[in-house]
Write a structure and sequence with these properties.
Layout lengths: L2 E6 L2 E9 L5 E8 L6 E5 L12 E6 L9 E4 L4 E2 L4 E11 L2 E11 L7 E3 L21 E8 L4 E8 L3 E8 H10 L7 H22 L5 H8 L5 H8 L9 E5 L9 H17 L7 E5 L5 H14 L4 E3 L6 H11 L3 E5 L8 E8 L9 H10 L12 H6 L3 E3 L2 H12 L5 H7 L5 E3 L7 H11 L4 E3 L25 H10 L19 E4 L5 E6 L6 E6 L5 H17 L1
Parallel strand pairs: 15-16, 15-17, 16-19, 20-21
Antiparallel strand pairs: 1-2, 2-3, 4-5, 6-8, 7-8, 8-9, 9-10, 11-12, 12-13, 14-18, 17-18, 22-23, 23-24
Length: 560
Amino acid sequence: MNSGAIELNGKYYLVVRVEGNDRKSFFAVAESDTGIDGGIGFGLCDDIEHAVIDEEKIISKRIYHPLTESKNGAGAVPIRGKKCWINIAHGVRNTAAGLRYVLYVFGTDLNDPSKVIAEPSGVFLVPLGKERVGDVSNVVFTNGAIAKDNGDVYIYYASCDTRMHVATTTIDKLEDYLFNTPRDPHRSPDCVKQRCELIMNNTYQRWCEDEYFDADTRAELKAIADDPQEIKERFYKDLEFGTGGLRGILGAGTNRMNIYTVRKATQGLANFIIKENAQAKGVAIAFDSRHMSPEFAKETALCMAANGIKAYIFPSLRPTPMLSFALRELGCTAGVVVTASHNPPQYNGYKVYWEDGAQITAPKDKQIITEVQAITDFAQVKTMSGEDAKAAGLYEVIGEEIDDKYMEALKKLVLRPEAIKEQADKLKIVYTSLHGTGNIPVRRVLKELGFNNVYVVKEQELPDGDFPTVSYPNPEDKNAFTLALKLAKEVDADIATGETSVLSLPESNVLYFELEDGAWFCVRPSGTEPKIKYCAGVKGADAQDATEKLEALSKAVVEL
């Protein structure tokens, strides 16, 4: 195999001394466009017992950048399909973790097996999970496959030089993959774009065709078949489960709020609860007035029940603080409230609370996110019928008893009940629920406390997911209170009268107090959670003096 190499006219030639079957030496010449060619070859011989291949053709080249970058090799004997010979091979790339072996597939002509007619981009099979544990990590290869008369195909492959596995598929699926997957564009940005588009389009087609998704969902998606931008918006990513939960536009698709993305999020939460060994405590569920909120709440409850976790669900809309109270009162491990807070009408959301009644915080937030992200297929999501869930004692409707306890708990928070008794009949209060959840509980607690002059904005009294009288239901937007302020003037409400002064602060939903010695204190509601936020500032002669003053002020506020 003594060899010599030259470059001539842009091509590379390798001249080698080789021996024939008769042990006589002769020279052979190999020609290459790149100088580093290699790959899977094809040749014919007259006698397989004394194989002599006069001409070999490279039918799957070694190419820099794709998965055949370092080397590639033949695997199982080609499978005869309906449209082509199906060739399963392994390709090797250099990675930071070392050589990575994957399987890829290409098709050759039935009448001329040396002619490649299908070269889909990307990988066919990669090592995953336990397949990456063994003597040589990150490696899969195959040497055998069986094609049955009914079209079923069994592909036998090894991982990490340690384990053997079998993958099942069909001739039809393999040829669909071969002829409906584009070729590799050979540039990293183009590859990334291509893979994203393939995943998106494949996912879209699955949602359109798979009967797992209901008929209305499939019809909604088929209606946008000629709108690639809308398809992209709905499928280019999964709706992200953030530190608080889900929030997104309503509609069909992986990047939308629908019963399927809600089920997926719930399955991830259920998996985390089970890992915490807290499934026996159950989960409380509430929902607001937005579109699909009752449906999402029910799907959440049924998914929890299917995982053996009892669901306590309100029968009608409740504000978020009542969910927080309910899960603590019932001793639940977690709670879910279906709401998108103050977002526009086309949105809905899914917020997760833990056993302390507050929204999830570190480290549990990220742990739950990890579990949700691990759900890669809707087949992993469990659900059951309402009848079966109730029969199993895993679905309980809660309502009046919790409402009553919540009202009693609220009234105990009154610091000066005697002042209310003295002034209640004198005060005029204007209230608006902004088409949300607060109408009934707010009016009830005000009445039970003795406030009899409560005026409700009729145009905004009833729950309505369209929020027709406001651009969006944000209580921090003064425009949301246009009707409330109008009514306040008409009835001479006390909430709209009194002495006012201009502060050197931008308009905001806060109570601001200037104190002695240049100190200040303000109170504001959280925009997303059922809690009040306090802020304070002091002036001191030095850092220690300022610290002492701030501690004293904080203590006074807590005691108050």
